[in-house]
Specification:
Strand content: 15-25%
Number of strands: 6
Number of helices: 2
Helix content: 25-40%
Order of helices and strands: HEEEHEEE
Structural class: alpha+beta
Strand order of the largest sheet: 3-2-1-4
Radius of gyration: 25 Å
Shape: rod-shaped
Length: about 90
């Protein structure tokens, strides 16, 4: 009888440890957020992660709050953006 009790306690402890491990892996294993670097050069050309992009794509990316979004402009660029949730990039 005592052996069964000890065995049941060991199995219960093992199950708790496995559940805690699985939960930590699930919470830590969330997908990384996508990161987008947007650059507007002096000729107002748009580059998204180094590739040519469009204004529509910039607005789509900025509207998705699940992505990391960084906008940088050349000092001579005249193209500016204003986003609903992220604000404007120009003063």
């Amino acid at each position: 009888m005592l052996k069964r009790l000890i065995l049941a306690l060991c199995i219960a402890a093992g199950a708790i440890i496995l559940v805690a491990l699985a939960a930590s892996l699930f919470l830590d294993g969330s997908p990384n957020r996508a990161r987008y670097e947007v650059y507007v050069d002096a000729q107002n050309r748009i580059f998204i992660n180094g590739e040519r992009g469009t204004e529509d794509r910039v607005y789509d990316l900025a509207g998705d709050m699940t992505v990391d979004f960084h906008l940088e402009r050349h000092p001579d660029a005249t193209l500016g953006f204003c986003f609903r949730y992220r604000g404007c990039d120009r003063e």
